[in-house]
Specification:
336 residues, f41 fragment of flagellin, N-terminal domain, 2 domains, cilium, cell projection
């Protein structure tokens, strides 16, 4: 009678291979139960991952839009805060200048001029604020400041009004510096891009334009009024007290009027914020929908996986038990 036997070395290899296979199955099932996804997607999807790849591409693109919208929202929020800061400085100077009248003393005029000059400097510096290293109010010119240093602007304005003695002439000269095409403000004051606005991609083939720059008329009007109030108290110009009073009274009225323009800028920024928020909501909904579709493709059924895991654990336990018993066999035990 022929007896087929497996040698010890071969038995060792068979046992080891079986042990390794069970451990691999166990690790795979643990991974699937933990992640909720099939580990072998190629086999699970019958070798066709076209749909899955398409979903992954769309999700990646939407995640990028989502991140971009968050950053744009923060950018717009900082712009709102900046314009609010400009308006606060306007109010401070407005209160000081509106108190000036024909009975104001030189000391009062000087104090109002100092407040106006301080607010002018603060507004310019506020509008030169940067976000992630980029100028916010310079249009598409992100590298340089939106406005020249306040000292440079005021020195240029002083040159424009030097020698003028009446409030009307000084007022007109300052208006011309700020408003005339190719005037001092456009050539020396505003340093940003005068031809375009910042545009941000919010979704596929959809952009949001941020139509606010430091050369906007509302900004010019605010700076113009502050400059009038400040220059009225400049000793080097030698302006008479009556002219100083007239200039500061005019500056106070102009600052009062410029409030509506600044509100208009905030409304423009608010509209851009609304569009970004709407785009964010749509993007979030799309991400949620596509994520569900992707999960349906790759999901590992938790009940089935847990059942298989329990089965493999039992097999592995049985394997170790049998291996231990086989290792204890001996000829003496066999002959008994």
């Amino acid at each position: 009678m022929a007896i087929s036997m497996i040698g010890d070395l071969r038995q060792h290899f068979v046992t080891t291979r079986h042990n390794t296979s069970l451990k691999n199955d166990l690790n795979t099932l643990v991974q699937e139960l933990t992640s909720g996804e099939k580990s072998d997607l190629t086999s699970h999807l019958n070798g066709d991952q076209t749909i899955l790849a398409g979903l992954d591409r769309q999700l990646q693109m939407l995640q990028q839009f989502s991140q971009s919208n968050v950053e744009t929202g923060q950018f717009l929020s900082l712009m709102q805060t900046t314009i609010a800061g400009v308006d606060s400085h306007r109010e401070t100077a407005n209160a000081a200048l509106l108190s000036i009248n024909t009975s104001s003393t030189p000391s009062q005029i000087e104090n109002a001029a100092e407040v106006a000059r301080g607010s002018f400097d603060a507004v310019v510096k506020t509008l030169n604020v940067r976000s992630a290293g980029n100028t916010m109010f310079g249009g598409n010119n992100f590298g340089s400041n939106a406005l020249a240093d306040p000292e440079v602007i005021m020195a240029d304005l002083e040159s424009a009004v030097v020698g003028l003695t009446t409030a009307g002439d000084i007022n007109s000269a300052i208006d011309a510096w700020f408003d005339a095409p190719a005037g001092g403000f456009e050539t020396d004051g505003y340093l940003g891009d005068a031809s375009g606005y910042i545009s941000r991609l919010s979704a596929a083939e959809q952009t949001v334009e941020i139509g606010v720059r430091a050369d906007d008329q509302a900004i010019r009007d605010t700076l113009k009024a502050l400059a009038k109030g400040a220059l009225a108290g400049e000793p080097s110009l030698g302006i008479g007290t009556e002219t100083q009073q007239e200039l500061q009274e005019r500056a106070g009225i102009d600052l009062l009027s410029s409030a509506s323009g600044l509100t208009g800028l905030q409304a423009r920024i608010g509209y851009a914020e609304q569009r970004i928020e709407q785009a964010s909501v749509r993007t979030t909904a799309q991400i949620s929908s596509l994520s569900i579709a992707r999960n349906d493709l790759v999901a590992a059924d938790p009940f089935e996986t847990a059942t298989r895991l329990q089965s493999v654990q039992l097999q592995l336990k049985t394997h170790y038990t049998l291996t231990a018993r086989l290792s204890n066999l001996s000829l003496t035990e066999y002959l008994r």
